[in-house]
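Hey, can you fold this one?
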Amino acid sequence: MLAPLLIAFKEVARQGSVTAAARQLDCSQPTITARIRQLEERYAVELFHRRGSRLDLTDIGTHLLPLIDQLLQQEGDIDFLLRNAGALRGGSLRIGVTGPYYILPSVAAFRQQYPAVEVSIEVGNSQAVLEALDDYEIDLAVSSHEVEDSRLERRTIATDPLVLIVPQRHRLAALADICLADLADCNLLLREPGSMTRKLTEQALQGAGIKLASSMVIGSREAICEAVRLGMGCSLMPRGEVPTQAGLAICSLREPIPVLHEYLYTLSTRAHNPVIAAFLAALPPHRLP
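Sure. Predicted structure:
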């Protein structure tokens, strides 16, 4: 079939390397290379200029990319139509989220109104869920990345200040509020690259001229909270994402306070679909904290 070959080509073009594309598509590098070679040989074209490990699109490759987007959109529309036939008396809705904290109340309201619609929630970082939306793997994406793209509709669903979480017996736990300079000698636990929480943390520290003594990367909020509870360090995270967990203390930050905004995205071409439109209608009005 042609679709796997085109998807492999699109992912290599987007990622800029076969290695990254293979990781994103969860298959081997030789498989990706073979699919692109098969596509080129089948039509006697060259899609990339190959300069060592560097891959640059040829003219035909550049013209092919938007056509693949159109094809994937049509496939997504067909899939969506078949999954959601029956005027919301069935079907499904796929939501990609960076965390369930801000969207779950809306999901609960939607499920109460449309119990026959199956809702699935997939968790990833901000970059990953937006890529999944672009690839038609999900129908809605919750992300803290503010993206300006005419192909996307965006709604703000939450505005949340960052706070510091520390072990209850930590020296900072007794303070009513802290400044960023208090973190200089702490082991700061950071999210993975691509996380907006990490980006806000790094921007705040850089703006305050703070150089950390040490840091550690942990790829999930839950794991970070457990590591803090075990005394492995402290971390900045949005207030609404901090669990009510024994062993944790929450410290407010003095001005300027980093603030995370959470957005809900859908493809503009799909906003009129009955299930997506019904979910958007169930969203409560956004209120500032």
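The chain has three domains: 2-67, 81-157+261-282, 160-260. Let me know if you want another pass with a different chain boundary.
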